[in-house]
Design goal:
Number of domains: 3
Number of helices: 7
Structural class: alpha+beta
CATH superfamily of the largest domain: Pseudouridine synthase
CATH topology of the largest domain: Pseudouridine synthase
């Protein structure tokens, strides 16, 4: 039996989730346990009892005083994992996450994640996303490289999360995708939800959450295209699902595009640029990183093979 007392604030990635689903993810406990706690009034939203089916909203304040029968992990072990820190101040850390590193623990995996590394490196991290996601403002997938913001305190976290909610924080990606595009620019406006036939995947579906992505062609090859991608919304696997939906899956993305003869080590996707206002003085900050060596080598290979690349 475990007691859990926490105060949580809902971030954008969970917008529209059922309350019981949200809590089971954040606490990493069984959904049935959470449902029983909600029924007993041990979960309050803005100080009032709620129901399991309540759809959470950004900045909802949730107070927990739970007694759970299920054995749960209540703390994580700090680990000395090297971090590529692009920028740091008293409120935040901007990290260049390598491919292969999971951002936070979950589904029985409580070690060798970015969060374990952060717990070793940082004295303080925000608590708004719970004990298993301290400091995590937004996420990128395990096999995606790139820039990730981490908040050191709750005030900074709330300020950065508000920028995400209001689309004032801009995140740009580069991806190599299959096929060629007739147009130089475009928009993908298609709702995304969990794929009922494969719970690991997301898919475009009528009852999904609103999702909008923008693309711009950076370079064309005979059978592939390098795209610049921008997010208006931040759904799970949004770019991967959207690009698969328009029949241009990201190269190396086995989950959404199948095996690739060009690259077999995860999706060729990098979060290379981020623009946001700094919490301490609201100064506009802009950072970008070069393409990872692996990614660059694939592009050089395509250029060498293409006798006359389309520009």
């Amino acid at each position: 039996m475990k007691k859990i007392k926490k105060n949580l604030k809902v971030s954008e990635e969970y917008l529209g989730e059922r309350l019981d689903v949200y809590l089971s993810k954040v606490l990493d406990v069984k959904r049935k346990e959470v449902q029983e706690a909600i029924e007993k009034g041990e979960v309050l939203v803005f100080g009032k009892p709620s129901k399991s089916g309540y759809k959470v909203r950004i900045d909802d304040e949730i107070t927990l005083d739970l007694t759970l029968l299920d054995e749960v992990v209540t703390s994580l072990t700090p680990e000395d994992i090297p971090l590529d820190i692009v920028y740091e101040d008293e409120d935040l850390i901007l990290i260049n996450k390598p491919k292969g590193l999971v951002v936070h623990p979950g589904a029985g995996n409580y070690s060798h994640t970015l969060v374990n590394a952060l717990l070793h490196y940082a004295k303080d991290l925000s608590s708004l996303n719970g004990a298993f996601r301290p400091g995590i403002v937004h996420r990128i997938d395990k096999d995606t490289w790139g820039l990730l913001l981490v908040a050191k305190n709750d005030k900074a976290h709330a300020y950065l999360a508000k920028q995400l909610e209001n689309h004032l924080m801009h995140r740009s990606y580069l991806a190599l995708v299959k096929g060629t595009f007739p147009n130089n620019k475009g928009e993908i406006d298609a709702p995304i939800g969990r794929d009922p036939s494969n719970r690991l995947r997301m898919k475009v579906k009528a009852d999904g959450k609103k999702a909008i992505s923008y693309y711009e062609v950076k370079e064309r090859f005979s059978h592939y295209t390098l795209l610049n991608l921008d997010l208006k919304t931040g759904r799970t696997h949004q770019l991967r699902a959207h690009l698969a939906f328009i029949d241009h899956p990201i190269v190396g993305d086995d989950l959404y595009g199948g095996k690739s003869s060009l690259y077999q080590n995860g999706q060729l996707l990098v979060a290379y640029k981020i623009v946001f206002k700094r919490p301490k003085d609201e100064k506009l900050m802009e950072f970008d990183i070069p393409l990872p060596k692996e990614f660059e080598e694939i592009l050089l290979k395509l250029k060498a093979e293409d006798t006359s690349p389309i520009i």
